[in-house]
Amino acid sequence: MYPRLFQFGHITIPTYGALTALALVAALAAAVHFARRLSVDPNKIWTLSLYVILTTLIGARLLVVVAHFGAFRQHPFWVLGLTSLQDWWIAPAAAALGIAAGILYALAEGLSVLRSADALAPAVALAVAINRIGAFVAGLDFGMPTSAPWAVTYTSRIATLWYRTPLGIPLHPVQLYDAAVSLIVFALLAWWLPRRQNGELAGAALFLFGLARPLLSVYRADQTRIGLSLAICMVAVLAGAALWLERDDAASSRRTSARSYTSTDDSPAA
Q1: Is residue 225 part of a domain?
Q2: Exposed e or buried b for every residue in 174-183, given b needs 16+ CB within 10 A?
Q3: Fewest beta carbons within 10 Å, which of 46, 102, 162, 203?
Q4: How many domains does the chain have?
Q5: Are the beta carbons of 239 and 202 closer than 8 angstroms?
Q6: CB-CB contact of 143 with 135 (8 Å)
Q7: Tens digits of residue pLDDT in 174-192
Q8: DSSP H helical ranges for the chain
Q9: Local structure of residue 42 (DSSP, 8 states)
Q10: List of residues 6+ apart from 92 with CB closer than 8 A
């Protein structure tokens, strides 16, 4: 495929990096759009999203420095992303830092955490879809070998150099499977938005992604992190179910209160 989007002299623009940047811009625009539809301050959601993105990106670089401090002392510019080396725990740890920063900002600004999460859930699904398309075009996170007629075969030596992509072997386009699931989740959340209650969209996104990821892991070539992936998926499914149970409890309480009010209102006067 095309791991390199443009080449200007010695400056290279990676396809994956360019589409990841596009995914972040699309996520910001989508978050603001859905915030307006949910009657949440779009400016605060914009700022919250920036805090999450910047904390995640900077946190990932700092965690690389902490994990490989000896190498960083010899090559200080390594932190700027001049290497693709990254330990298995860095991405989830950086994401956790970003989520924590978003929650703290929401609490500090008086935003409802659940309503903010509802506004962000479709935006995240859209960003994941675009990011996975970028991974497919670049040859990153490739799938297992297959004889399926829709298999993809990579031929770029740059993909091998950057991402260790095997050349000349038909592979599952697992990145496109992931993108398709993310687009389906995005469409479902966008359709569900007018009917949602606090936390419902976020819970649905966590539950659906948590169920889909283990199924997609079967087709991934890299099986070394499957244990961590399954653990994260289990946490996501449980968190999504918890949000839905809370939503059902809240709805039940409202119905009980409404019945109590009606019974009191209809009782004969003394």
Answers
A1: no
A2: bbbbbbbbbb
A3: 46
A4: 1
A5: no
A6: no
A7: 999 999 999 999 999 999 8
A8: 15-37, 42-67, 69-74, 90-108, 113-138, 157-163, 174-192, 200-217, 226-266
A9: H
A10: 228, 232
Tokens of 46: 């914009």
Place of tokens 């811009």: 25
pTM of structure: 0.84
The verdict on residue 230 lying in a domain is: no
For residue 116, give the nearest of 31, 187, 189 by alpha carbon.
31
Q: Which two tokens stand for residue 104?
A: 């703290």
Give the SS3 label for residue 147.
coil
21 pLDDT above the threshold of 60:
yes
The answer to the question of residue 213 being in a domain is no
For residue 267, CA distances in Å to 8, 94, 253 come to 81, 58, 21
Helix (H) or strand (E) holding 6: strand 4-8
Single-letter code of the amino acid located at 9 = G
pLDDT tens digits for range 80-131: 554 455 566 778 888 899 999 999 999 999 999 999 999 999 999 999 999 9
C-beta separation of 3 from 163 below 8 A: yes
Find out whether 154 and 165 touch, Cβ atoms under 8 Å: yes
- Altogether, the residues listed in the chain come to a count of 270
User: How many alpha carbons fall within 13 Å on the CB side of residue 184?
Assistant: 9
Are 99 and 239 in contact by the 8 Å Cβ rule? The answer is no
AA letter at 269: A
Residue 254 located in a structural domain: no
